[in-house]
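Hey,
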Amino acid sequence: MPSPTTGTPSPAWTDPDCPVARTLDLVGDWWSLLVVRDAMDGARSFTDFQRRTGIARNILTDRLRKLTAHGVLTQQTAPSGRRLQYVLTSAGRDLFPVLLTLRQWGERHAFEPGEPHSTLADQHGARVPEIQPTGADGAVIDADTTHVQKVGGERRR
């Protein structure tokens, strides 16, 4: 699958004209998003990712390679100078709202009322508030107030 920045559709894309499908092709599997989550939480080394996720070495190797190849992670020399570490790129950091939305959906729908779970706090220790997308006019938008315009102007859900 070529880099998404080349603009060349690949037969490997699930749906070449859909940004959601292309994104899922790149980072939509279970392990990739957990690797990105842990990179956002400070994981840098292969060992960090493996310890935090419990992922098998061969699967982790594959996901790190894929995320690096698609510009979500990059490798840099660690401060010690002895090894390479994985660091989020700007494209990887741009996944923050995606993970935040998944987290907030999970807090509402994946736990029983009162069941304990981790929370996300800002730099002051305050819980991160719910995010809601808004339109150009500031009004909250959702699936009932938006539509997809396919290539060529066709509408689709």
